[in-house]
Amino acid sequence: MKVGRYILSIDQGTTSSRAVLFDSFGEIAGMGQREFTQYYPQPGYVEHDAAEIIETTLYAMRAAVNEAGISPDDIEAISITNQRETTVAWDADTGLPICNAIVWQCRRTSPECERLKAAGMGEYIKKTTGLVIDPYFSGTKMKWIMENVPKAKELARLGKLRFGTIDTWLIYTLTEGKAYVTDFSNASRTMLFDIHNLKWDKRLMEELLIPESALPEVSESSGIVGMCGNALFGREIPIAGVAGDQHAALFGQCCFERGMVKNTYGTGCFVLMNTGNKPAESSNGLLTTIGWMIDGKVSYVLEGSAFNAGSAIQWLRDELQIIESAQECDRLAETVEDSGGTAFVPAFTGLGAPYWDMYARGAFLGITRGTTKAHMCRAVLESIALESYDLFALMGKEAGIEIDELRVDGGASRSDFLMRYQSGLLNKKVCRPHCLETTALGSAMMAGLAVGIWENIDELKSIWRCDTEYLPDMLGENRDADIDRWHKAVEKSKAWA
Ligand code: ADP
Questions:
Q1: How far is CA 443 from the centre of its chain?
Q2: Are 452 and 225 in contact (CB under 8 A)?
Q3: What is the Cα 77 distance to its own chain's centre?
Q4: Residue 330 CA: which ligand 1 atom is closest?
Q5: Is the beta carbon of 201 within 6 A of some atom in ligand 1?
Q6: What integer is the mean pLDDT of 479-492?
Q7: How far apart, in whole angstroms, are the C-alpha atoms of residue 314 and residue 310?
Q8: pLDDT tier at 353 (50, 70, 90 boundaries)?
Q9: CB 104 within 8 A of CB 34
Q10: DSSP secondary structure string for all residues of 371-433
């Protein structure tokens, strides 16, 4: 371990750009953050201004270094983790974006996705990219730009069009146009990347009208991809670790071995399991994706997500206004023995894996005259653990792997009630680490490995520390009853809208 040196980790998210400065013990030395504008030009459309993403990122990077009070000379490397799938298009000559970035949440390419499904591309896309056809992924966003932004076609003809996910856009700009690269984890979210042969897929590029010159080179997640120019900190600094946010979080939780799992409890939940050097196929809508590629070795991942988790707590606070804070939800839930026979299904925007019902809607069931807000708070927290339970059960089955323990992060992992209940439901140990900034830490670890702050994976394991451990303390019969009640409630929430 090289002491006295720092990694500046960029965490470019959906609503804000952040930067976290880590020392060689994995401790946070400084942080910076700035929100940016969300554009909703039409219903279902979501855009970001790619230039504002750069401005806010640069601001956050400077703020993190200032807060720590270190000299830029002490920064050994920069790392990048990012909101995934969001797509930027720019002109190679000017380095300027030709339109707003199309954000992962944007549904404008739903018709194109319907067309691909009708053309029978589903099976091919699943087999090749590990993904299901959905507007989420970058490929159809790029096609939309090709068809709707006149400048794109013109630049493509000249070989001057550049497409990129946010990592690529940041690297391109920070290196002053010298590096046009992405990493394997981000590439695997474009719906254009063959995750088995590890290259851009020609058939999908043709299908989506994307010229080869408009796609970046794909490089390892840990390794120097370029030098950040000296305009920012007065000297060149290597950019040495790159991964999509959920992949970086899995790495930051030190889930390096097959069968290790993390769950991030944020607005929604993201469960990722390392399945080792072989991709696990899912027939129930889990995604097969690349976790990272390091030293020529790929780690594959199975990913499942629930659209709403912490957002249900926000709903109690902001819409129902029966609590003042997320912490109060936790406190109230602890005041009752159980949910009083109620069950909540957080299907505000439909249900994902394993149910896949876009027409399901939120439901509160089993309410009696004796139901209190404490019961409701408890039912909401329980629902987050129950929907996660469904994802683990499915994942374990499809990967054929028995889960040993669960590592957790994200805002709602602060809830002791939720974590204890999760442990009980899974009948497994749940570990909440000392550093909850696992996303930023993960890419910092990748960069640190590349530049020799850490020698090897074992050294990384030594900086991950479980802060709070939850052991299962639930009776089997209670667990079964809660899961049964949940499944009954899920059935009743289906096909509502
Ligand atoms: P995102 O990255 O998706 O914006 P965060 O990881 O920042 O999400 O987590 C935010 C979510 O965490 C919110 O939905 C909020 O309800 C929840 N949350 C924050 N603090 C707590 C807490 N102490 N107990 C339970 N939930 C919490």
A1: 13
A2: no
A3: 23
A4: 24
A5: no
A6: 96
A7: 7
A8: confident
A9: no
A10: --HHHHHHHHHHHHHHHHHHHHHHHHHHHT----EEEEESGGGG-HHHHHHHHHHHTSEEEEE
Is the pLDDT score of 157 beyond 90?
Answer: yes
Q: How far apart are CA 60 and CA 81, in angstroms?
A: 14
Using CA positions, which residue lies closest to atom 18 of ligand 1? 412
Output b/e per residue, 477-490; b: 16+ Cβ within 10 A.
eebeebeebbeebb
* 3-state per-residue secondary structure call for 409-425: ECHHHHCHHHHHHHHHH
Q: Quick check: CB of 313 below 6 Å from ligand 1?
A: yes
What whole-number distance in Å separates Cα of residue 262 and Cα of residue 249? 8
Ligand 1 pocket check for 411: Cβ under 6 Å: yes
Query: What confidence tens digit (pLDDT) does each residue in 106-150 have?
Result: 889 989 999 999 999 999 999 999 999 989 899 999 999 999 999
Q: Above 90 in pLDDT, residue 350?
A: no
Q: Is the pLDDT of residue 340 over 90?
A: yes
Q: Which atom of ligand 1 is nearest to the CA of 268?
A: 3
Please give the helix or strand (H or E) that residue 156 lies within, else none.
Answer: helix 150-157
For each of the domains in the chain, give its residue range(s) and CATH number, in order of start.
6-245 (3.30.420.40)
Beta bridge partners of 226: 239
**CA 225 – CA 79 distance, rounded (Å):** 10
Q: Does the C-beta of 18 come closer than 6 Å to ligand 1?
A: no
The region of weakest confidence among 57-71, 326-340, 394-408, 446-460 is 394-408
Quick one: 3 exposed, middle or buried, by C-beta within 10 A (0-12, 13-18, 19+)? Answer: exposed
Distance from the CA of 27 to the center of ligand 1, in angstroms? 22
Whether 439 lines ligand 1, by a CB cut-off of 6 Å, is no
Atom 8 in ligand 1: residue holding the nearest Cα: 266
Q: Give the dihedral sign, CA 247/250/252/258.
A: negative
Q: Assess contact for 232 and 57: CB atoms under 8 A.
A: no
Q: Which of 414, 432, 468 to mutate to test the pocket of ligand 1 (most atoms within 8 A of CB)?
A: 414
Q: Residue 398: its pLDDT value, please?
A: 87
Decide whether any atom of ligand 1 lies within 6 Å of the 186 Cβ.
Answer: no
CB–CB of 444/297 below 8 Å?
no
pLDDT for the residue 4? 84
Q: How many CB atoms lie within 10 A of CB 237?
A: 21
**Per-residue model confidence as pLDDT tens digits over 232-285:** 999 999 999 999 999 999 999 999 999 999 999 998 899 999 999 999 988 888
**Band of pLDDT at residue 349, cut at 50, 70 and 90:** confident
